[in-house]
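Below is how a single chain appears once it has passed through the pipeline. First comes the sequence as given, then the structure the pipeline wrote out for it. We keep one example in the README because the format questions we get most often are answered faster by looking than by reading.
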Amino acid sequence: MEVRVIIKAFGFLLLLIIGIPGNVFVCLQFTYVRIIERKLLPTNIIMAILSFFNFFVLFSRIIPQSLNALGVENLLNDTECKLVIYTYRVSRAMSICITCLLSCHQCILIAPMKHVWMYLKQKVTQRSMVVILAFWIINLCTYPFFILNAYARKNGTTSVYTLHLVYCKADFLNYQSYIMNGMFYEVRDFVFVVTMILSSSYMVCILFYHGRSMRRMMTMNTSQRRVVHYKASSAVIALVALYVALFGLDNSLWIYTLTLSDVSPDMNDTRIFLASSYAALSPILIIITNPKLQRNWLFLHRQKPYPISLDGQGHVNCITEWKSNSE
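Resulting structure:
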C-alpha cells in the first residue's frame, strides 16, 4: 500500500476515533445532567444539539471516506447515495447555523444591561429552540437537488459538471447550475462566518473590559454570576475561532482549485479532511471548557473518608465528608 494511501486512511480514521465518541459523550452527558438536575442552561442545550449534528457529519462523510481509503469499493447504491449526501449536506449546514447561533446567543447574554439588549435577552435567548427548528426546516428544504441528482459512481455517464464524492456523484447537468450551487452555499457560509466573527469580537471586547473593571466590582454575588457567563463566552469564542480557522483553510484551497484545470484527488481529500475536522475537534473543546462535562457522569456524589482520630476521652472519631458534584 502506498504511503499516501496510508496517511489518508490514518487521517480519516483519526477523525472518527476522536469525533464520534466525543460527540456521543457530549450528547449523553448533557442528557444525563438534564434528567438528574431537571434543568439545562440554553447554552448547553445548543452545544448538545451541535454535537448531535456534528456526529451525523462524521457518520455520513468520514465513514465512507475511511472505508474507501481502506480499499472498499462500490459500497453504496443510488438510494443510499441520495440519503448519505442529503444527510451530510443538512448536517453540515446545521453545524454552521448552530455555531453561529451559539456565538450570537452568548454575545447577547453578556451584553450590557441596556434597553435593546434587555429585549433580546428576554426574547431571543428564550426562543433558541424555535430558531434551531427554523434552521432545520430551511436546510431540509434547501437540498432537494442532491436527492434528485445523486447516483452511485458505478452507474452511467455524467456531464463535466459533476461533483464526485467517493462512492457517489452529483451531476449538475450544466454550467449555470454548477456555478449557482457553489456560489449560493459559499455566500451563505460567508454570511454566517462574518456574523460569528462580529459577535465573537464583541465578546472579546466585553471580556477585556471585564478584566480591567473586575477589581472595582463591589457586589460579590453579581460578580460571580457574571464570571460564569464570561467563562462560557471564552468557550464559545474558542469554538468560533476553530471553525473560522478551518473554514478559511478549506475555502483557500477551494479558491486555489478554481485556478486549476484538473484537480487532483489528494486536493479533494484535503478539503474534505479540513471541512470535517470541526465536527471531530469541537467536542474536545466543549468537554475541556465545560465544568459539567468534566465530572464523573455515572455518580453525582462521592463519599470521602477522612483519617480516624481520637478525641479527648479516647473515643474514636471517623469524619466523613459528602462531596457534592453539583454546582
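Confidence is low (pLDDT under 50) at residues 217-223, 296-327.

See the next section for the split statistics.
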